[in-house]
Write a structure and sequence with these properties.
The protein is an alpha/beta fold. It has 14 helices and twelve strands. The protein has a seven-stranded mixed sheet with strand order 2-8-7-6-5-3-4, sandwiched between helices. The protein has a three-stranded antiparallel sheet with strand order 9-12-11, covered by helices on one side. A two-stranded parallel ribbon has the order 1-10. GO terms for molecular function: L-allo-threonine aldolase activity; transaminase activity. This is Aminotransferase class I/II-fold pyridoxal phosphate-dependent enzyme. Its cofactor is pyridoxal 5'-phosphate. Keywords: Aminotransferase, Lyase, Pyridoxal phosphate, Transferase.
Length: 339
């Protein structure tokens, strides 16, 4: 079976399971779990920040971070296809009383001038803009990487207007490998970041919120309020640390396999290989004779699993558990169906 639905389908490796089995643990709600504490300190240092907090999911990490930088009744600016407004069930409004306003979907190709023009100052009766959120890499933008120069320009806009800048960095590890930008350089541009360990890195569970000591102290309270305080969670933190130590550089292999998929399927007019930068391969089926649900269903009969994102859009994702033989099988099956 070649499972290309998502990089969340990976399973812990033997080395990761060993790290989990032998992890030192304690009660993390009391701050007593040494493995969690070490992971948090390590990740904060990687991004050049003071502190970090382990959370059970990327959605929780994002929502904690947004509440750190946007007060109830404040406004968040983000892309119309950002994860925080498309895949988090309105949590910003429900949990944080946050109003969101979006710019038109453009994936990783951000128009900084357009974003700057959207900023609203405080003043009755408008909702004042408090923060801007960007996604790195961009999920619905086909795994696109926001360039460092664009992020710097966006940081300048935020500073000019007194706004915070949040990074939904669930797949930021891919941007780091693809563009060679140090994680600390990314970290220095943002007030808060969320990063995920359970996608491309292959850990079973876990994300982290990153920020200042003051922000993370408040984040700990918000995590508890959301039901995210866990006890002997060092077994999960150990998996995350193993992933960071062993699985970051190998992401380049996922990028190479994604490029091979894109190049093989390009003749069918469904993908531009030049737009595939990381491990996500979006398939545009608008001119194809087959729609996304049908393609996914027929591929599944041939032991290839893909994600139908929209009626005419599908997605392939390469990851730790997908080897060259599985990619070859996927190419053969999808080529047959698309032809």
């Amino acid at each position: 079976m070649a499972d290309l639905r998502s990089d969340t389908v990976t399973r812990p490796t033997a080395g990761m399971r060993e790290a989990m089995a032998t992890a030192a643990v304690g009660d993390d709600v009391f701050g007593d779990d040494p493995t969690v504490n070490a992971l948090e300190n390590h990740v904060a240092a990687l991004f050049g920040h003071e502190a970090a907090l382990f959370a059970p999911s990327g959605t929780m990490a994002n929502q904690i971070a947004l509440q750190l930088v946007v007060p109830p009744g404040g406004e968040l600016l983000c892309g119309a296809d950002a994860h925080v407004v498309t895949y988090e069930l309105g949590a910003a409004a429900v949990l944080g009383g946050i109003s969101t306003r979006t710019w038109p979907s453009d994936g990783a190709a951000l128009d900084v001038d357009r974003i700057a023009a959207m900023v609203r100052p405080a003043g009755y009766p408008s909702v004042p803009t408090a923060a801007i959120a960007v996604e790195q890499t961009h999920n619905l933008g086909g795994g696109g990487v926001v360039s460092l120069s664009v992020l710097r320009d966006l940081r300048a806009v935020a500073d000019a207007h007194g706004l915070a800048l949040h990074c939904d960095g669930a797949r930021i590890w891919h941007a780091h490998v693809a563009d060679g930008v140090p994680l600390a350089e990314y970290g220095g541009l943002f007030d808060t970041l969320s990063v995920c360990l359970s996608k491309g890195l292959g850990a079973p569970v876990g994300s982290l919120v990153i920020g200042s000591h003051e922000k993370i102290a408040r984040a700990r309270l918000l995590r508890k309020r959301m039901g995210g305080g866990m006890r002997q969670v060092g077994i999960l933190a150990a998996a995350g640390r193993y992933a960071l130590d062993h699985h970051v550089r190998r992401l380049a292999e996922d990028h190479e396999r994604a490029q091979r998929l894109a190049e093989a399927l390009a003749p069918y007019g469904v993908v531009d290989p030049a737009q595939v930068r990381t491990n996500l391969v979006p398939l545009d089926l608008s001119k194809s004779t087959v729609d996304a649900p049908t393609l996914a269903a027929e591929a599944a009969k041939r032991e290839v699993l893909i994600a139908a994102m929209l009626p005419r859009t599908a997605r392939l994702v390469t990851h730790l558990d997908l080897d060259d033989a599985a990619v070859d099988h996927a190419i053969a099956v999808l080529s047959e169906l698309l032809s």
